[in-house]
């Protein structure tokens, strides 16, 4: 497999240029910033060009609809309402609230998923019996029914935390279970034979060989589920009258879009950052647990 | 995410969709003849427990809710759901149609852009290295947060506002997977082409694209499932009355859960149909790949 | 189960390995494969035996039978006067495969400690033994390195250190140098011989390479094509210690020829049947 992230990249014509001669990690940062800068540039360019050509489709270029990128940033450091806290503070609190809702469910889902994975690898009977249900559970589009779950939960008297937690747990358990199972089965048959030659107990094989092999797979699942859990949490905040959270902020600022469009854009930006932060934390953990020893491209 | 992550991720996504597609072991050679015909029934046999299980659950569900007199707002009976499904068929399917338009529109836009981005990524190194970490970061973003902006920019009742969100959701998996497929080429083959002094375009056509097709289709399957859900979820942030998302949320707010579930049922049917269509397309485009799979082990 | 030992095991009273009429058949019905048939052999403690034969002759299978990684379908097999299963539970042997199969999340030292952890040695014993073994294979310097930082040959040396960590009396090696280049291979052969002379090990060594078999062992067991049987036993009779000079001696070449002839005879027998 071509591992372009660590090798000096030679393009299809077999040439190098100033860019390909940079250190790979530096290249990544440069390229990432480049993409970001390009996006901002495109944004502003569209505004300028569309205004000059008097184009209003697909999006109006005026400052009411498309605020300047710097105005959006500037708005973060303005008070949310007269005499109120800074927008960035409100949004940070909202992000933490939403992340917090998602976190508990996420952790529980991960534990359940991991346990299922271990169960299935130890007992083929259990796998045959329960795997169809586990897979079938995913035919239920949990994100689509999230508002229903939340409303239904409210009826039953469940707190917001619990309701969103359920959604997050449901989202997380399946990928983690599948990937755990995969990962537990991933070791070389030779390695398994080696353990047998030591007359190792099932438990020793599990914890010394299978689980460490499974960790990369599990982390991949966690990263995917993390984002989905945040989405679930946001959606879960929509139908109910939650006073805090990103969902609430998005709805509120939607309504204020006419007057102050920057606030909605800022809210979307912060939501994006919240997602990136969550996954970033998991990636950090992964680096400590998985990549430290193994030769994986970082 | 590392390249290994992407690999695992791609395999995982394929897993989720194709968990039932694992081929059963073929009979092998008995009396000089390959027992291929048996494979069909073996495969049916594999699905059978799950299907039976499904029906069993439905029956039990119905029986228990009746027996225990569970209120429909706590847990609706399957029979109630089906009744509502039939009763409100015209409203539901009209809404479903509108949602489907949004999903399809977004799917087409997102997939097209994703493939173009993948091609650009492969052609120019700089684009690749910028896009990949960006795409990976973007995958961490709750894209659904775009929905309110799309509503504000494109008018809350316009299908375009939802299509934009769907396109955004679909774009990244398609781009990432297609890129991987295009890049994951044996260096030996690339050197071969280079020894013919072939143009980058020829390399693309002869080597990369055929390699990328399986990845592309697996990405399509994921995208198909995502687009419908994304459309519905985007509608939760606001939309015209006559779409599934609004229908569901309105009914749910009135505690009319059987109605809401009936709409979900319609969405599931659409989703399965969509998936089957993609499967058919895959088989048409890559007959070699699929038949290769079924004679393996 | 044996408790962790801190003393080398007592010398074996009887034979290290005895096989009588051992056979192994895989699968059933139309898909049966008879891998081994009527294997008779006896190996005295401290011997260095090579198993050589054409592909598919079952030499790896025989090794696995000895190691209780699979069971014979006929005949009797005894390892250290016990059945192989008991020998495995008693941790009488260590195995080295063609792939070093080091765990990539563990350092070299921790890899060597792996069997010791499984077998319940306490942590200071483990550390001491691992250090000893790494010194034995002359890789003490690399104890805190990770497998990916080592070359193929070095990884195999770690695998050998790991196999010997719990002081087994028997070492089973399945084409351990097959994946290495010729130069490294010869060095590794020297290493194995050195380790063998410094310990009381009995070694059963499976290989494809005739020179390797002759260079290393006391006796070379030539196996026939499937179903595998012991077609020939050739005493190498070369003096110890063996080194570069041995590789150039006429006796060495003569023995290689003898083994090669034995292998050729297998083909001729097949053609004539």
Give a written overview of the molecule.
- The complex is a heterotrimer of chains A (298), B (297) and C (273).
- Helices cover 71% and strands 0% of the residues of chain A.
- By secondary structure, chain A is an all-alpha fold.
- Chain A has two domains: 1-62, no CATH class; 87-291, Orthogonal Bundle (MetI-like fold), CATH 1.10.3720.10.
- The longest helix of chain A has 36 residues, at 87-122.
- Chain A is globular, with a radius of gyration of 24 Å.
- Mean pLDDT of chain A is 84; it is low at 1-9.
- Helix content of chain B is 79%, strand content 1%.
- Chain B has twelve helices and two strands, in the order αββααααααααααα.
- A two-stranded antiparallel ribbon of chain B has the order 1-2.
- In chain B, a hairpin with a 2-residue loop joins strand 1 and strand 2 (33-34).
- The longest helix of chain B has 37 residues, at 200-236.
- Residues 9-37 and 291-297 of chain B have low confidence and may be disordered.
- In chain C, the strands form two sheets. Chain C has a six-stranded mixed sheet, with helices on both faces.
- Chain C has nine helices and nine strands.
- In chain C, a hairpin with a 6-residue loop joins strand 1 (17-26) and strand 2 (33-43).
- The interface between A and B is large, with 85 and 76 residues.
Structure characteristics:
heterotrimer; A: 298 residues; mainly alpha; MetI-like fold; 2 domains; 71% helix; disordered N terminus; C: 273 residues; alpha/beta; six-stranded mixed beta sheet; three-stranded antiparallel beta sheet; 9 strands; 38% helix
């Amino acid at each position: 497999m071509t591992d372009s992230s660590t090798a000096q990249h030679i393009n299809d014509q077999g040439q190098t240029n100033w860019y390909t001669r940079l250190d790979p990690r530096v290249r990544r940062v440069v390229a990432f910033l480049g993409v970001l800068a390009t996006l901002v540039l495109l944004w502003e360019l569209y505004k300028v060009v569309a205004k000059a050509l008097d184009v209003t489709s697909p999006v109006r270029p005026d400052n009411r609809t498309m605020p300047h990128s710097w105005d959006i940033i500037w708005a973060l450091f303005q008070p949310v309402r007269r005499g109120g806290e800074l927008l960035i503070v409100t949004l940070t609190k909202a992000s933490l609230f939403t992340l917090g809702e998602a976190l508990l469910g996420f952790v529980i889902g991960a534990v359940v998923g991991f346990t299922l994975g271990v169960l299935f690898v130890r007992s083929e009977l259990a796998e045959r019996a329960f795997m169809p249900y586990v897979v079938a559970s995913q035919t239920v589009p949990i994100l689509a029914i999230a508002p229903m779950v939340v409303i239904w939960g409210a009826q039953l008297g469940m707190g917001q935390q619990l309701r969103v937690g359920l959604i997050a747990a449901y989202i997380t358990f399946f990928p983690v279970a599948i990937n755990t199972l995969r990962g537990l089965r991933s070791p070389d048959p030779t390695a398994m034979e080696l353990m047998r030659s030591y007359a190792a107990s099932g438990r020793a094989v599990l914890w010394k060989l299978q689980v460490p092999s499974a960790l990369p797979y599990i982390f991949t699942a966690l990263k995917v589920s993390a984002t989905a859990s945040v989405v679930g949490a946001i959606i879960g905040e929509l139908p109910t009258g939650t006073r805090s959270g990103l969902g609430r902020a998005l709805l509120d600022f939607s309504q204020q879009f006419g007057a102050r469009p920057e606030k909605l854009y800022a809210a979307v930006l912060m939501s994006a950052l919240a997602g990136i932060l969550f996954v970033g934390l998991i990636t950090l953990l992964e680096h400590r647990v998985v990549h430290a020893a193994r030769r994986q491209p970082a | 995410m590392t390249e290994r992550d992407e690999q695992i991720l791609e395999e995982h996504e394929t897993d989720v969709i194709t968990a039932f597609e694992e081929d059963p072991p073929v009979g092998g050679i008995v009396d000089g003849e390959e027992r291929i015909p048996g494979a069909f029934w073996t495969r049916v046999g594999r699905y059978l427990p799950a299907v039976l299980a499904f029906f069993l659950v439905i029956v039990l569900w119905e029986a228990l809710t009746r027996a225990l007199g569970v209120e429909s707002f706590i847990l609706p009976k399957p029979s109630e759901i089906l009744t509502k499904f039939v009763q409100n068929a015209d409203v539901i399917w009209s809404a479903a149609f509108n949602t489907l338009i949004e999903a399809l529109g977004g799917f087409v836009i997102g997939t097209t852009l994703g493939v173009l981005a993948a091609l650009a990524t492969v052609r120019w190194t700089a684009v690749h290295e910028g896009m990949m970490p960006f795409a990976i970061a973007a995958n961490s973003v709750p894209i659904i947060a775009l929905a309110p902006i799309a509503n504000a920019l494109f008018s809350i009742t316009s299908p375009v506002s939802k299509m934009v969100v769907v396109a955004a959701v679909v774009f990244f998996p398609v781009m990432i997977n297609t890129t991987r497929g295009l890049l994951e080429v044996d260096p030996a083959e690339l050197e071969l082409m280079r020894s013919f002094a072939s143009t980058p375009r020829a390399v693309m056509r002869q080597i990369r694209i055929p390699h990328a097709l399986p990845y592309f289709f697996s990405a399509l399957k994921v995208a198909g499932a995502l687009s419908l859900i994304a459309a519905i979820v985007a509608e939760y942030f606001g939309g015209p009355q006559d779409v599934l998302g609004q229908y569901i949320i309105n009914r749910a707010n009135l505690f009319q859960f059987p109605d809401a579930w009936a709409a979900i049922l319609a969405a599931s049917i659409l989703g399965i149909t969509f998936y089957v269509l993609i499967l058919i397309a895959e088989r048409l485009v890559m007959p070699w790949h699929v038949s290769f799979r079924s004679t393996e082990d | 189960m044996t408790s962790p030992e801190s003393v080398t095991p007592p010398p074996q009273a009887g034979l290290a390995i005895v096989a009588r009429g051992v056979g192994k058949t895989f699968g059933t019905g139309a898909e049966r494969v008879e891998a081994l048939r009527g294997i008779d052999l006896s190996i005295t403690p401290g011997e260095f035996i090579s198993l050589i034969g054409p592909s598919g002759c079952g030499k790896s299978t025989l090794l696995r039978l000895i190691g209780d990684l699979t069971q014979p379908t006929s005949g009797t097999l005894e390892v250290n006067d016990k059945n192989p299963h008991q020998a495995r539970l008693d941790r009488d042997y260590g195995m080295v495969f063609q792939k070093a199969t080091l765990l990539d999340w563990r350092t070299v030292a921790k890899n060597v400690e792996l069997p010791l952890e499984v077998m319940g040695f306490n942590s200071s014993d483990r550390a001491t033994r691992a250090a000893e073994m790494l010194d034995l294979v002359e890789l003490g310097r690399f104890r805190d390195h990770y497998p990916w930082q080592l070359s193929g040959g070095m990884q195999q040396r770690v695998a050998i250190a790991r196999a010997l960590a719990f002081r087994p009396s028997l070492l089973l090696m399945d084409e351990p140098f097959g994946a290495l280049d010729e130069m490294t291979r010869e060095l590794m052969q020297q290493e194995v011989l050195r380790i063998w002379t410094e310990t009381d090990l009995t070694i059963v060594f499976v290989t494809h390479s005739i020179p390797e078999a002759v260079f290393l062992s006391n006796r070379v067991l030539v196996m026939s094509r499937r179903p595998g049987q012991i077609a020939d036993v050739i005493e190498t009779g070369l003096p110890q210690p063996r080194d570069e000079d041995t590789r150039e001696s006429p006796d060495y070449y003569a023995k290689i020829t003898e083994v090669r002839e034995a292998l050729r005879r297998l083909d001729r027998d097949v053609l004539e049947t």
